[in-house]
Amino acid sequence: MAAVERNDRPVVGLTMGDVAGIGPEVIVKGWNDPRLHSFARPLVIGDAGVLRRAVERIGGNLRVESISAPERSDPTPESIPCLEPVLDREARSNLMAVRPGTLDAR
Length: 106
Description:
Number of helices: 4
């Protein structure tokens, strides 16, 4: 008998952390664990390109699907939905105001 897909599982956002760290690879490896999909509908929050490179390094047949909103998430063991944060005008302006070699905790 095939497993029944439960729609009552919560949507869980997994943040990648530092894109230069091990977070993307940990997410890719963890995505293959069926327990993750049995208790949640996971999605990744971060840079889809970085996640795709992690998939290439780890190997396998996972697809990274860019999504525009959490409700558009359709995770499967073969497909990782990735929500890329979008900076508004003020956030972009604040980033541009930070000079290299300085700290700014606005």
